[in-house]
Design goal:
alpha/beta; Rossmann fold; 2 domains; binds adenosine-5'-triphosphate; binds magnesium ion
């Protein structure tokens, strides 16, 4: 099925400092799998440019690659893909990786409907037929051999479905494969990301790799301010400073005083929302941080983190 792509102004859609005439191809209206717009989402200029460049390159036939977004937990990988798609009205078929994800989970399977046996498309087939994005979250959890089934598609070839009488599906324009993962496909040397697999090198060779780290402090403050506008700016700045210190301790784990939990942007947002909610309570920052993070930490770690909060945020914490 062909979609009618229209040109959207990047400046208007993504609120980025780019020339007025910079355009990106999207659809005129949302479709059935267009993610909802998160009006508070803030786009990073470089990452957005990379993703738009990849999308444009695929649409024009300049390349056939997929895109692999790698970065720590809760840094905004999935949100970036969904929010770019949301603004461009693109449809995203999504699947979550797991070790036993089978080709049939992606391609589809035979199913009994009434007295008939029909082939039901999986997310990959749906995306290929319609020219939509396929987003595989946590792709490095999948058994490497299963994803190798994507190699032909990543070379611009068709999807062949033996279960459906050998049907050949040539991907419609707009189709693309995006993977998010905590690793760059080399396995996990840190021991943090249990169950991640070393991916097949020939598979990884077919991807652009984008590194999505936690936003720099100024941007993360903006993200939090947008999500919890009732919190005073000075408090939000301190919260991001606390997150920075805990991340440093976490990154140094194994080389001294270690903490086994850290602040993702997701956790920081949760802390801000709870702190806003409980801001009338005594010690609202400590109270909300327990619920957002430290109740799942070892007691010594929790104490160390609350110590940082006390030191940086003072008595009102
Ligand atoms: N730039 C941003 N602006 C606003 N919110 C953001 C931004 N980046 C991330 N977030 C929010 O942070 C949270 C975590 O993001 P997301 O789920 O995309 O992380 P992830 O990298 O996919 O994590 P995981 O590795 O656990 O899958 C989401 O609620 C998302 O909306
Ligand atoms: Mg994710």
């Amino acid at each position: 099925m062909q979609q009618n792509f229209v040109q959207h102004s990047i400046k208007a859609l993504f609120a980025l400092p780019v020339p007025e005439n910079a355009k990106a191809s999207g659809l005129a209206a949302p479709g059935p799998l267009t993610p909802p717009v998160d009006p508070r989402y803030l786009f990073d200029k470089d990452l957005t440019a990379d993703l738009l460049c990849w999308h444009q390159g695929r649409l024009t036939g300049a390349h056939r690659d997929g895109v692999w977004l790698a970065g720590p937990m809760g840094s905004g990988k999935t949100a970036l893909v969904n929010q770019v798609a949301a603004r461009l009205n693109l449809n995203v078929a999504q699947v979550n990786g797991k070790r036993r994800l089978e080709t049939a989970d992606l391609v589809g399977h035979l199913t009994a409907v009434g007295g008939d046996v029909l082939f039901e498309d999986g997310p990959l087939t749906t995306a290929a037929r319609n020219g939509w994005w396929l987003l595989v979250n946590e792709a490095d959890l999948v058994e490497p051999g299963e994803l190798a089934g994507l190699n032909t598609l990543l070379e611009g070839g068709p999807l062949v479905i033996p279960e459906n009488g050998g049907e050949v599906v040539w991907p419609a324009p707009g189709f693309g494969i995006l993977c998010t993962a905590n690793t760059v496909g080399l396995g996990d040397g840190s021991g943090l990301y249990a169950a991640t697999q070393r991916m097949n090198a020939a598979l990884m060779d077919r991807f652009w790799v984008l590194a999505v780290d936690y936003p720099p402090p100024a941007r993360e403050i903006e993200v939090l301010r947008a999500a919890a506008p009732a919190l005073p700016a000075a408090i939000v700045e301190k919260m991001v400073e606390v997150a920075g210190e805990v991340r440093k301790l976490f990154a140094a784990a194994g080389e001294g005083p270690a903490v086994e939990v850290t602040f993702s942007t997701r956790t920081l947002l949760r802390w801000a929302l709870l702190a806003q909610r409980f801001r009338g309570a005594p010690q609202p920052l400590d109270y909300s941080l327990r619920r957002a993070l430290t109740n799942r930490a070892e007691p010594e770690t929790a104490e160390a983190i609350h110590g940082i909060v006390q030191r940086l945020c003072g008595g009102g914490a």
